């Protein structure tokens, strides 16, 4: 025998196993990931300066010096609306589904946490057997077993911890979805409330319009009986009265439908019996200049998207670590006796301890493909995050621009409504004096009520845009 070192044949399996495990570790590569970033302008295009947008939005979950969304409903000074919003938070069915999704995510986090702890199972079994010899003699035996099994997998590569972290951030995303759902529901209730209020005011205006047309018809009928006008004026006036009644019926139907929509949001039966106020609020509060970008840090959809991206990062880590060796310990202890009363006797105690070290061999291609899929999901989540951020800026810019236009529109339409109202009164007086014809009178009255209706609609649009701006910013200013 030469002096060269050699391995005993009994050592070869252990050496081969260690080589396989080391090879699996050497091939293990975890893809590097980067924080999703969004390149944005340094200030709002709509005359609203902004600072450090990219830095602020790259970490939306950081602590902010700006308050979380407050009760922006106070600006509208409507106790009835506040009560409906509160009611909707309890009875809205869509919100209840979001709450259930969040509760399910909580349980998923608890399940992921249990994987880090040992599992212990206990069992009690009894077995009776009968045997018969070749001589025809038979015998029976009874065996009772009490067993306790413990299984534990040490978290060697933090794979189980990454699974728990992924579940935790998904729970965080689900909780943020719930906050987004509450904010969206409050906005929907408010928008439908003010839409119903506007429709009610439009009905009141149409009733006044019908009353004025009926008064004009009485004047025309009196002049017709005296032979001061012909039948054409009479028929035109009666036609306008009928059309006014038809407009009023349509508006009443629209109000019923609007009320039913509001009742569904609140969680009531859609009976169209809910009562709304008679007037729209005045938007006295103006938007402050220099709204900071950190206001968008509190937007629930941005925070939820960022949390889901973080979850995909942990998913990628878990998928990569599945290619590494895993180790587990199994301990069993128990007693076995033919007499049930002896199960708790320590003289019948049996136990064993088993360690298991495993390494995926022929599944490497499958595991690599699964890791690539997780990495693709991570990139998709980063793209979704960037898309949501850009949409947030798009919404804010649109509503900031609309705010300026709506304010001006309310102002100019108020002037138009006042002037057209004066013209309508003057036209009726002149018609009674025979200075103008019926077409001029009807056209002037139509213009007056159209401008008043447009003014009401402009106020409602201004309120609706302000609500959507609160929604885009994730809360109040």
Tell me briefly what this model is.
It is built from nine helices and six strands; from the N terminus they run H-E-E-H-H-H-E-E-H-H-H-E-E-H-H. By secondary structure, it is an alpha+beta fold. The protein has one domain (39-127, 140-473): Outer membrane efflux proteins (OEP) (Up-down Bundle).
What does this structure look like?
With 477 residues, this protein is an alpha+beta fold. The protein has one domain: Up-down Bundle (Outer membrane efflux proteins (OEP)). 60% of the residues lie in helices and 12% in strands. The chain is built from nine helices and six strands, in the order H-E-E-H-H-H-E-E-H-H-H-E-E-H-H. The chain has helices at residues 12-27, 53-58, 79-91, 93-114, 159-225, 231-266, 300-321, 364-432, 438-473, and strands at residues 43-44, 48-49, 119-132, 138-152, 326-337, 349-358. The strands form two sheets. A four-stranded antiparallel β-sheet has the order 3-4-5-6, with no helix packed on it. Strands 1-2 form a two-stranded antiparallel ribbon. Strand 1 and strand 2 form a beta hairpin. Helix 5 (159-225) runs antiparallel to helix 7, helix 5 runs antiparallel to helix 9 and helix 8 (364-432) packs antiparallel against helix 9 (438-473). The N and C termini lie far apart (89 Å). Mean pLDDT is 79; it is low at 1-30 and 48-70.
SSE diagram, text form:
Blueprint lengths: L11 H16 L15 E2 L3 E2 L3 H6 L20 H13 L1 H22 L4 E14 L5 E15 L6 H67 L5 H36 L33 H22 L4 E12 L11 E10 L5 H69 L5 H36 L4
Antiparallel strand pairs: 1-2, 3-4, 4-5, 5-6
């Amino acid at each position: 025998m030469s002096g060269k070192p050699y391995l005993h044949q009994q050592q070869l399996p252990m050496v081969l196993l260690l080589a396989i495990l080391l090879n699996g570790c050497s091939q293990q590569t975890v893809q590097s990931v980067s924080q999703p970033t969004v390149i944005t302008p340094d200030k709002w295009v709509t005359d609203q300066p902004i600072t450090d947008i990219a830095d602020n939005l790259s970490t939306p979950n950081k602590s902010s010096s700006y308050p979380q969304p407050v009760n922006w409903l106070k600006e509208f000074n409507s106790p009835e609306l506040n009560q409906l919003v509160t009611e909707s938070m309890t009875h809205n069915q869509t919100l209840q589904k979001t709450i259930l999704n969040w509760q399910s995510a909580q349980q998923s986090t608890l399940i992921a946490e249990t994987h880090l702890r040992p599992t212990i199972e206990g069992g009690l079994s009894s077995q009776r057997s009968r045997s018969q010899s070749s001589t025809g003699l038979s015998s029976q035996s009874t065996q009772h077993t009490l067993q306790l099994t413990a299984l534990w997998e040490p978290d060697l590569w933090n794979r189980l911890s990454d699974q728990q972290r992924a579940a935790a951030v998904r729970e965080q995303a689900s909780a943020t979805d719930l906050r987004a759902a509450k904010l969206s529901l409050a906005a929907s209730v408010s928008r439908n409330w003010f839409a119903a209020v506007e429709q009610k005011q439009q009905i009141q205006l149409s009733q006044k319009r019908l009353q004025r047309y009926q008064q004009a018809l009485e004047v025309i009928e009196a002049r017709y009986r005296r032979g001061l006008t012909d039948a054409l004026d009479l028929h035109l006036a009666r036609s306008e009265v009928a059309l006014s009644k038809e407009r009023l019926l349509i508006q009443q139907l629209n109000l019923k439908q609007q009320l039913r929509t509001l009742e569904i949001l609140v969680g009531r039966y859609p009976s169209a019996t809910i009562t709304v106020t008679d007037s729209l609020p005045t938007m006295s509060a103006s938007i402050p200049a220099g709204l900071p970008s950190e206001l968008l840090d509190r937007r629930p959809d941005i925070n939820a998207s960022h949390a889901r991206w973080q979850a995909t990062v942990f998913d990628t880590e878990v998928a990569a670590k599945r290619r590494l060796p895993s180790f587990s310990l199994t301990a069993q202890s128990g007693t076995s006796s033919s007499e049930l009363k002896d199960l708790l006797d320590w003289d019948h105690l049996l136990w064993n301890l088993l360690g298991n070290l495993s390494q995926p061999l022929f599944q490497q291609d499958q595991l690599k493909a699964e890791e690539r899929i997780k990495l693709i999901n991570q990139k998709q989540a980063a793209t979704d995050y960037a898309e949501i951020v850009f949409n947030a800026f798009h919404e804010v810019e649109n509503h900031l621009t609309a705010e300026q236009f709506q304010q001006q529109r309310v102002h100019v339409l108020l002037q138009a409504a006042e002037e057209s109202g004066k013209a309508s009164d003057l036209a009726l007086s002149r018609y009674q004096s025979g200075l103008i014809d019926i077409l001029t009178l009807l056209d002037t009255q139509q213009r007056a009520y159209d401008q008043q209706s447009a003014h009401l609609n402009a106020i409602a649009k201004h309120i609706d845009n302000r609500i959507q701006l609160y929604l885009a910013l994730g809360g109040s200013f």
